[in-house]
## 1
Amino acid sequence: MNYNNQKAKYHLKIIVCGSGAVGKTSIIRRYVEDRFEFNYLLTVGLDPSNRQIEVDGFLVNLIIFDVAGQKRFQTLRDVFFRKAHGALLVFDLTRPETLDDLYEWKQQIDDRLGKDKIPNILIGNKSDLEDSIRIDYGFLEDQVIPDFLPIKYLETSAYQDANIRETFSLLTKEILKKQGIINQD
Ligand SMILES: Nc1nc2c(ncn2[C@@H]2O[C@H](COP(=O)(O)OP(=O)(O)OP(=O)(O)O)[C@@H](O)[C@H]2O)c(=O)[nH]1
Ligand SMILES: [Mg+2]
């Protein structure tokens, strides 16, 4: 179905959080432009993009905010977090230290927007790099997910286009549920 001529009723701001080079820009690029870049071009500052999505019969305009993961670009974080409706917390399945950094991102979300105020989805990206993966689901389930509850977890590959659309659908759905627009299941 083509929604181009319809007006979205809801406009939701999604923020994509995580350390440098975990694949934030790649996930958004795959979702919005359906392409992938092997070259690492680090994000400087903020870079919002748009895509419409249909969830449970509701047409929603997602405004997706990308941000620099590297700590030296901290100055735009106020604009980044402001009035966000939902967040992706992205780590790199091949670099466990990127998971540790998410505690800090989650803290910033809670401090600026209120504790557990917006839905978060935990994303383990680069699932295609099978031989280099250093984090398994058992570890996450025991040691990590309990610290981030309530949260859902998905493994993605921006490269292979695995679980990318599902990620944005799930987050949109969680936001609409939280806002009472669709029913909890
Ligand atoms: N194999 C593989 N490589 C990926 C994937 N996603 C991203 N990459 C690569 O990882 C590197 C970093 O990706 P970016 O999307 O630029 O990372 P970022 O999180 O936006 O980084 P900053 O902007 O510095 O915060 C690039 O070389 C990408 O090609 C993936 O799913 N699989
Ligand atoms: Mg980036």
## 2
Amino acid sequence: MEKGRQNTLASRTISSASYRKDFFSPGMRKDQTLLSRECRTFLKQVEEDSIYFPVPASSLDPSLTVSYVDSWMYERNYKEGNSHEGTDIMAARNERGIYPVVSISDGTITNLGWLELGGWRIGITSPQGVYYYYAHLDSYTDIREGNTVKAGQLLGFMGDSGYGPEGTKGEFDVHLHLGIYSWGTGEEISVNPYYLLRSLEEHRLKYQYS
Ligand SMILES: [Zn+2]
């Protein structure tokens, strides 16, 4: 590799657009030694703390699948000027309250409750400080802010809440919006969850639901 390219990669910070967009991609993971220390550290923290795909498969009904595409920074259809900082995991059966949502990581519930954009959301901070944001839930299990959770623990059920005042539902199809954030530098920086989710598909739990 040319020296110029090496220098460019090594000087990237977590906030660089290309790092955030390509986060956890096979290419980035293969070339880790060329990343800056800060970028490599966050990649490693996410790799170590992310254990399970957030939506278990159904052991009862194989038609209850999910699907998602890389929609990083696409424009959203709710209010102007905000782009998509996450991945939408869509439900094949567009019915709220059916698909379970589990924690990707061990961690502490650091945010819980209503957000205009995110609806009923959950924010979990992992042991190494990775922030996982789960939005648009239909309902929660018996969890409270400050609780510790284990990877794979049931958090609630997928829904279509958000885009309005508290309790708004049905403004879009049922899905789980997942966000991944770093707080390492003192500011909140989102990275693209798409490639991490692809890799976590090998670690998908099975739950009994139909
Ligand atoms: Zn989304």
## 3
Amino acid sequence: MTRAKSPLKSITLSSGRFRITRVDCAGCVQGRKLSCKVRGEINIVPTTNKKDELDTWVHEAMHGEFPRMTEPRIAKAATNLARLLWRVGYRKGRQ
Ligand SMILES: [Zn+2]
């Protein structure tokens, strides 16, 4: 259940246009769930673990790019891409 949303931006991916929001979901962080699925939206639960948050952004974007890809393949590829981005220095809030 979504408690609060703050719209950020929108993005067009291969399967359509998505509104991007940060949300506070009841039980999301405690249950290690860092996103909420709503059609046409990418909803991310902000977390203090920035590496996990990067993985989640990549994961949800990959669902938008490859809507028929299985969850295990998305999860593995997203984690690998997030690890690459993290290793080369991409961090939230840095310019
Ligand atoms: Zn997924």
